[in-house]
């Protein structure tokens, strides 16, 4: 088995758990996995149902799919989840929504898509290689050189999503890809996690822990403790590559070529 997975969620200080996280295996394609993390829109009715719709869509579409074009597959998966959430909204007369981060892992490569502010991080033994960029006003305005009131949390509109599943927005999931090698791992997380724990802390912890003890529950407990009584739901999925693969330089070249 080239991949090892570990999942954890805690409700935090909220009245309802609106995060969902799942790992799916393809019975007809040994070595192929799909990791799905969804965060129902906080403060909206039926957010938990929206997040569950993302998981249910993945369970229906992935196991027996023929994934010849990962970008198209992941994009279609997001669009079908969006349609399922819109259907819930029509039934209940509200506008439920969800974010998502999805990782499609094969024996030698990884592909991902995301919508909203649930994140995917890619690490190796040297630390953080990449993270997805949130679909928020702050990151839209400031990009990689985030600065100013919105980026620094002083503007209350800065954290506002301009794209989500189920929202009244044009849906354009962002896609990424990379070859993978020994000492690679990915983390998918909801905003309740990354709002409390910096990626440098994650990299330090996962590098320090013995390989078989890299624990999502330890990370989630840390974020939940920091969030306190008013903290958000917290969810983390770790996907740790146990196989062999290309060098770091070749991996990065492949990543730039597969986008």
Describe the structure.
With 259 residues, the chain is of the alpha+beta class. It has a single domain, classed as PPM-type phosphatase domain (Phosphatase 2c, domain 1), CATH 3.60.40. It contains eight helices and ten strands. It has helices at residues 47-61, 70-92, 137-142, 148-151, 191-194, 199-208, 216-227, 248-258, and strands at 3-10, 19-25, 33-40, 98-105, 109-115, 119-124, 127-131, 174-179, 185-189, 234-241. The strands form two sheets. Strands 1-10-9-6-7 form a five-stranded antiparallel beta sheet. A five-stranded antiparallel beta sheet has the order 2-3-4-5-8. A hairpin with a 2-residue loop joins strand 6 and strand 7 (127-131). The chain is globular and about 50 Å long.
Strand order of the largest sheet: 1-10-9-6-7
Q: Structural class, from secondary structure content?
A: alpha+beta
CATH superfamily: PPM-type phosphatase domain
N-to-C series of helices and strands: EEEHHEEEEHHEEHHHEH
Dominant shape: globular
- CA-atom Rg in angstroms: 17 Å
Biggest beta sheet attributes: 5 strands, antiparallel
Residue runs with pLDDT of under 50 for 5 or more positions? 144-155, 246-253, 255-259
How helical, in percent, are the residues? Answer: 25-40%
CATH architecture: 4-Layer Sandwich
Oligomer: single chain
What name is given to the CATH topology? Phosphatase 2c, domain 1
Number of helices: 8
